Amino acid sequence: QVQLEESGGGSVQAGGSLRLSCVASGGIFSINAMGWYRQAPGKQRELVANITPGGTPNYADSVKGRSTISRDNAKNTVYLQMNSLKPEDTAVYYCNARFPRGSLGKYVEVWGQGTLVTVST
Question: Would you give the distance in Å from CA 23 to the centre of its chain?
């Protein structure tokens, strides 16, 4: 019953900025890591950034220095601020969240439907 809903995607020119948001809804007790992944046509899905419940971020080298991931646990929301966007950033961006379930170390992974980011030169 838990679902993720992304927003904030769109079409921007190179050098522009976007702020992606992802809200988790449903029967939520807690959320482990949350993150953003992206997939360009013909490419594998790749990690952009993720963040622990305590707020420790991790970034792909390709976006480090240009992006900031953050979360609001009270709102079950994760954000991705992207600046200095490049055409190479064009992709569908997917929100990901992991919810603890079952045995220690196990979790349920939920994906959003994705939001399209298009960066034109």
Answer: 10
Return mean pLDDT, the chain. 96
Asked if residues 50 and 60 have their Cβ atoms less than 8 Å apart, the reply is no
Joined together, the tokens standing for residue 29 give 């007790």
104, 110 contact by CB (below 8 A): no
pLDDT bin (cut points 50, 70, 90) of residue 104 is confident
73 neighbors 31 (Cβ within 8 angstroms)? yes
Output the CA–CA distances (angstroms, integers) from residue 26 to 7, 23, 30, 33, in the order listed. Answer: 17, 10, 11, 17
- CA dist 9 and 21 (Å) reads 9
**Pick from 6, 7, 3, 5: nearest CA to 26:** 3
With a cut of 90, say whether residue 102 has pLDDT above it: no
pLDDT at 65 (0 to 100): 97
